[in-house]
Amino acid sequence: MDLRKHLTEAFTIIIAAVVCALVANAMASRERKLALVGTYPNAQKVPVRTAEPLALPAPVVPTATTATTATIPIPVPTATTTTVQKIAAPKPVAVPTATVAPAPPPPVEDPQKRFPPHPEKAFVELHGDDVAWLHDHGALFLDARRTSVYEQGHISGSRTMSVWEADVDEKVNKLYEERNDPREQLKPIVIYCSGGDCEDSHMLAQKLWGVQFNNLYVYKDGFPDWQKRGGPVKTGSTP
Amino acid sequence: MKALASPWLTIRVQIALGVIFIAASLPKIVDPPSFAHMVYNYRIVPGSLVNLSALTMPWIELLCGVALVLGIWRATARNIIAAMLLMFIVAISINLARGNAIDCGCFDVSAAGKSVEERLADMRFVILRDAGMLLMAAQLWWADVSMLRFAQSK
Questions:
Q1: How far is Cα A215 from Cα B116, in angstroms, rounded to an integer?
Q2: Residue A46: what pLDDT?
Q3: DSSP letter (8 states) at residue A66
Q4: Does any CB of chain A come closer than 8 Å to the CB of residue B62?
Q5: Alpha helices of A89-193 — where are they, by DSSP H?
Q6: N or C, fewer C-beta in 10 Å, chain B?
Q7: A76 — contact with chain B (CB < 8 Å)?
Q8: Does residue A126 contact residue A220 with C-beta atoms inside 8 Å?
Q9: From CA B119, how far away is CA A56, in angstroms rounded?
């Protein structure tokens, strides 16, 4: 065996492969192009699989009394009133005002008040109800899945921003320019991917947090859950 | 042992191994971002090298596969393929030991949406399959060694 000959041939094959890879990548469409050097901070960290959702920061809703779950409690004004009326109804006398529960404050309608910025951590995980509320209140939604998957169906109004495509930094910078006012950067942004083990939304959140977006939420159960809930879905390349 | 080195068997094994590697390389070449995701999921490659590995590895597979099918630089292509198979076996074994259930990304780069148990079972199967392909590479090596010995004995 001629070792020198083998090494020369092996080296030639590898160099040819590198050249082919670089040329093919240079000619690839935006969706199929890769940045030559990726930035994946957790590339060697094995994910810990837990069923426990992350805890949310303390909500600013003053009347929150049942903050035991991971979801932010929504004040329900009608529930308390109904109970009081049911108890009071059989009595012929007027219900004394002292026994009536104090009127709950009106529900918080400002997304930023209900979901305040959390600059100390990159993102907070949310479940369907909160995500639907944010969607109804005009929060920005980002789809971290591949563009081809986005086109097959996405949350209505969401923008595509795949962490695996070469133009992700360009898209992040564009978003930063759109929201360069610090007050704009405090508005909640919801990021989602396919739920389950999918980490693309977490990776995108880390990226956005790195450019000073301080109010990011990851939709933990992702697009499959949205579809299950019957949320508005759109197909095609436009939000 | 003589039958193992027969030209009839060797040419078939050589072409089969080449075709397998060509088939494995094509989906990765067509969709590098998805393959980069697969490489990332192994949690072995440093973050800065994930994309570069995802771009070059399929082309190495393709060129070695073509070399085997055409019979050009056969020994070198076989050795590179054997080295890659060993690398795949080690990488999957490490993740099996860690309990990190992944899609291997061997012939398909789209996430299959399987459960953790299904993926772990697939990983065990992939190790066996890669070991089988490693045996094919070993047969090619054995045929070369036998041919060399035969030539030297004359």
A1: 32
A2: 85
A3: -
A4: yes
A5: 111-114, 128-136, 147-152, 168-178, 182-185
A6: C
A7: no
A8: yes
A9: 31
